[in-house]
Structure formats: C-alpha cells, structure tokens
Specification:
Elements (H helix, E strand, L loop, with lengths): L1 E10 L3 H10 L5 E4 L16 E2 L8 H11 L6 H20 L18 E2 L9 E2 L5 H15 L3 E4 L2 E8 L5 E8 L4 E11 L20 H8 L4 E2 L4 E8 L12 H4 L3 E3 L7 H4 L8 H14 L5 E4 L5 H7 L1 H9 L9 E10 L2 E3 L11 E3 L4 E2 L11 H18 L26 H18 L6 H21 L6 H22 L23 E2 L7
Parallel strand pairs: 1-2, 1-9, 2-6, 9-16, 15-17
Antiparallel strand pairs: 3-5, 4-5, 7-8, 8-9, 10-15, 10-18, 11-14, 12-13, 13-14
Helix pairs in contact: 1-4, 1-11, 2-3, 3-11, 5-14, 12-13, 12-14, 13-14
Length: 528
C-alpha cells in the first residue's frame, strides 16, 4: 500500500474535472485521477456543442425559459438562472484557453463563432467545434493540465471508494492499480467528476459509459442522491447491433434532419408542433413507439435534402464515422434508435458543488444541481460542467489556508483485496442481468408491474454478488456492487413518482402531479 497527499483530489478527467483542476492550480496542488485512455469519458464524445447566450439576437431570459420548459416543472429556477447567467463567461474562458470553435464566416455574422440550434432551444445559441466539440475542449484543456506544474495526473490507478476521517468528512480516496496494489490518496478536498449512470443500460451513446460508481461512492458516505429516475435517452444513436455505440448529434436535426418511419414518412409533426426539435424525452418516446409498431428495430434520420456539400461541412465526424460503417449519409438515411445518454439525477449539490458530506464536492454529470429538472435540454450539459466547476473552484479558492483536516493522516480505510479468487464469468453475467433488467423495465416507458419485477430481481443480483465476497473487498466486486445498488435506488425513485413527468413516463400514472418535488434518496433507503 502506498499513500500520497494533496490539497485537492479530483476524480474524473472530463470537461468538469479538467476545468476545476486548471482553475484551482493557481493556488493548490491538485491530483487529477483520469483514465489512461481519456476517450472513455462522455465529455470527449459530446458532438453538438455548448449552449450559452452569445449572439446579440439572443437573451438570458430566453435561455432560462427554454430550460425551464424542457425540465417539465422540476428545475430549480435558482440553479437555472445561475447557470445561464454564468454561461457567457465560461465560454469566453474556453476561447481564451484556445478551444478552436468553428468561426462564422458569413459577411453578416452577428457573432464571431457559428451558432447552431438544437431541440428545446428557440434561438441559435450552441457554440461548437464542427461536430466534435467535446474532443476539441478535452484536447485543449488536457494539454494545459498536462503541462501545469501544480497538477499531477494519475492515470495509473482507478478509484474504488472514498475515505473519511474520524468526523465523517471525506479526506480522499483509495485506488488500485493494474497490478492490484492499493493506493491511498489523501486530500483536504475531494471532488467527484466521474460522470453519470447510462452504463446501467444495455444500449448507450458512448462506448465505455460510466455506471454511476461515483454517485454510490458519495452515497456510501451518507450523501443524498436526487432525481435518479430521470435518465435521459438520446433519441438518435446509430443503430448497428454489431458495432460500437455512436451518437448522431442533435445538431443534425437542428440543421434540418427529418425522422422517418419504416414507410419513409415523417412522424414527428403529428406528435409535437416542434417536430424533430421537440425536447428529447418527447422525441425519444415517439421513436420508441414507431419502433414498437415496426419490425426493423429502428427508424431513419434523413439529411439527404441538405446536400452533400453542407453535410460534409457541418458534420465531418458523423459523415466519416458512418462511411466507415458503410453508410453514405449523403445518399441514404441513417438508421437510429434511442439509447441511454445522460443522467439528470445524481449527487445533490448546492451552487458551488458542495454535497451533504463535508470535504466532498461533485461536479458535472455525477451531480444533481437542479438545472435539468425532469429532462435535460440539449447542450446544457457541458455548460453545467463548466459553470459549476468554476463556481466550485471559486468556493475552494476562498477557503482559509488553515482549513486542512486535522485527522488527515488517520483516515478510516476499508481494506481492499484484489487477490480474492474471482470468477469473471459470473461477474459478467451479473452485470449483463442488471443491464437487461434496467433496459426492459426502467427505460423510456415504465410500468408499475415492470418496476415490481425489477426491484426484487436487482436485490437478488446484489445478494448473489455478495455471496462471492461478503465484505465487497475485491475492487471489481465493489464497483459492480455500487452499480447494482444505484440501479436499485433508481427503481425505487421511479416507484415513488406517481406521475409522468419529463423522462419518467408511465402509462399507469399518465398525468402530472399538482405539486411535484425532486426525489431524494440515501443508501439507507435500500438497506432497511
């Protein structure tokens, strides 16, 4: 076992984690734990862009109202206004740091960079770097973080759980390397930037999605989890059962892409007046209904009418990727299907990333700030990463120098043991069974009977897992245990919401409740 100490430990190296690290490094020594293969995170795969009020033809109140409408009555308006108001400065910070956003070269351009429009937005306010915005932001920020003398990047370990001091405050994490050696990472402040929980489902929009381990690490320390039932399914993931996941950006519909059923007919105009630009929950349910009525297992997204030159100009990444899978999107429509994409729920935080556990912060998709409510509006995700990473940094930079935890050198460490015999076949079967259960019963449409089936089935999977290692000491068992427990809490949150709202749709509860409230759960709720 080895031990190290830092001012701030950041777990996760996406846009939120990198932004926090770079902003804090002016004063603190930061340890940033991120995967050796940084393309595993969701940030890199974000195509469409970042929503912010940048054009003189747009205004803050319009962005606020669009977000509130998309959130279907469950947004925290204070968090919405905080995010929107701080959005332009966050974008300028990226520009100042060299992110190569796509310029607007039109002679009558009202803003220096090209702005597109996506579902739920009533204005062009999505700044982007072609159709690979996440990659551009990650590459730019990572180059700076890698060169910064106060930032130590650790790609040799993966975090398994968090540490507490004798007062119950978080004081770091314990991690493990590929050889099975345990590493104790002590820190005055610990920030989770570990992503969401779309990996609880079979089909996702990223090749290596997070399965919510960070959320449950926080819950294991007593943190509150909020709005877990609101799992967003992106309407348009490339349909290819034999190939890796690949997202077809909402910007494709923003530029005029049309959804067609098996008969080649548009169906969204009869579902919603906003047609293909309706909020994602509406579009995803409409596609799901068409798939259930058909036999192909997908619908079509058609952009041929835009012309080959416009397609190659606006969507070079999507064009190239589809071509690599023998689909010429200038000549044929794209087969698409909804897939788990974004967790609107997560660790409950305030406007500065603070959780209910002292010393522990959460930013990005792992957190629930109240911004998204019951449904995230397109391209508000990277905006949230930036704004709340910067506000979290502002809060930490304001802490006095004598704020070091007094018991930092004697954390409560649960021993890990990677030498415990492990049947990986059984582990894979349990993970597959969890994902199948969630996809069948807790996906786009939820039924009371389906949730009643899912709850005991997931509890049985947890029991089977713990039979292999009763104390959960093996790191891989600990990770899967976190995921199964988060799945159980997600089912419980869905069972307790007796209404249909945003991403939570149930034919058994088809109407809105008169006075909706966010859901709040802790680990104790499934341990009673």
């Amino acid at each position: 076992m080895s031990a190290s100490q830092s001012d701030v430990l950041i777990i996760g190296g996406g846009v939120a984690g990198l932004t926090l690290a770079l902003t804090l490094a002016e004063r603190f020594h930061v340890v940033l734990v991120r995967p050796a293969q940084d393309d595993q995170g969701a940030s890199r795969w974000a195509q469409g862009g970042i929503a912010a009020v940048l054009s003189p033809d747009d205004n803050l109140e319009a962005h606020v109202q669009d977000t509130l409408i998309a959130g279907d009555g469950l947004c925290d308006e204070r968090a919405v206004r905080f995010t929107v108001e701080n959005g332009p400065a966050a974008i300028q910070w990226l520009i100042d740091n060299g992110v190569p956003f796509t310029p607007d070269t039109a002679p009558d351009a009202r803003y220096a960079y090209h702005l597109t429009r996506e579902g739920g937005h009533n204005a062009r306010r999505i700044i982007h770097a072609d159709d690979a915005t996440g990659k551009a932001v990650i590459d730019t920020l990572n180059r700076q973080a890698s060169a910064h003398p106060r930032i130590t990047q650790r790609d040799d370990v993966s975090v398994v759980d968090l540490l507490t001091d004798d007062n119950g405050a978080c004081c770091g994490a314990h991690a493990i390397d590929t050889s099975g050696k345990v590493h104790i990472l002590l820190a005055n402040h610990t920030a989770l930037a570990t992503g969401g929980a779309s990996g609880l489902y079979q089909h996702t929009t990223t090749p290596a999605p997070s399965t919510g381990e960070g959320m449950m690490m926080a819950a294991s320390l007593g943190a509150t989890l909020m709005n877990l039932e609101f799992q967003q399914f992106h309407p348009t993931c490339l349909y290819d059962p034999e190939g890796p996941a690949f997202l077809i950006s909402e910007a494709v519909r923003g530029e005029g892409g049309q959804l067609l059923n098996e008969a080649g007919e548009r169906f969204m105009p009869t579902v919603d007046a906003r047609a293909e630009l309706a909020p994602r929950d509406i579009v995803a349910r409409a596609i799901d209904a068409e798939i259930q009525r058909g036999s192909r297992g997908h619908v079509w997204l058609d952009i041929r009418h835009l012309g080959a030159e416009a397609i190659r100009h606006h969507f070079p990444t999507i064009f190239a990727h589809c071509a690599s899978r023998s689909i010429d999107i200038t000549r044929e429509p794209i087969p698409v299907v909804p897939a788990a994409h974004y967790s609107c729920g997560g660790v409950a935080t305030d406007l500065y990333g603070s959780t209910s556990v002292a010393g522990l912060y959460a930013i990005g998709e792992v957190a629930c700030t109240g911004l998204h409510g019951a449904n995230r509006m397109a391209s508000n995700s990277l905006l949230e990463c930036l704004v709340f990473a910067r506000s979290c940094a502002e809060s930490l930079l304001a802490t006095p120098d004598n704020s070091t935890l007094q018991t930092l050198t004697s954390p409560n460490v649960t021993q890990l043991n990677a030498s415990i015999p492990l049947d990986r076949t059984i582990l894979a079967e349990l993970r597959a069974a969890m994902r199948a259960t969630m996809s069948q019963h807790v996906a786009i449409v939820r039924h009371v009977k389906g949730l009643e089936i899912a709850s005991p089935r997931l509890a049985t999977l947890e029991a089977r897992l713990l039979a292999l290692d009763p104390d959960g000491l093996h790191p891989e068992i600990r990770r899967l245990l976190h995921s199964i427990r988060l799945a159980r809490l997600t089912v419980l949150a869905a069972q307790q919401r007796h209404e249909s709202r945003g991403l939570h749709y149930s034919p058994d509860w088809p109407h809105h409740a008169q006075a909706p409230h966010p859901s709040r759960l802790t680990l104790r709720d499934i341990q009673q």
